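>> received
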Amino acid sequence: MTDYSVSPARYAGRRAGKQFFAVRCPSSDGFKSRAARLAEYCARGRYSNRESAYILGPRQLARYEALYAQGADASPITGELRERPL
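>> returned
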């Protein structure tokens, strides 16, 4: 089970036929989840308040899903990639 969902971005403009994706990372406690930290710091996604999601391109999404499957995490302070969560 994953704690994120992916759908086509409704409001992100298409450039040169490139499709963008909205990655939603809900949080039950108000803090960023591992999925949200990876989307922001490692995949270089930008948060869209209108979509309530991180906007990623196809390459960014592939990298994000690979890192998430490997169990990687980003530091909440510095944003540096950690191979395993503490």
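>> The helical segments are 34-42, 58-70.
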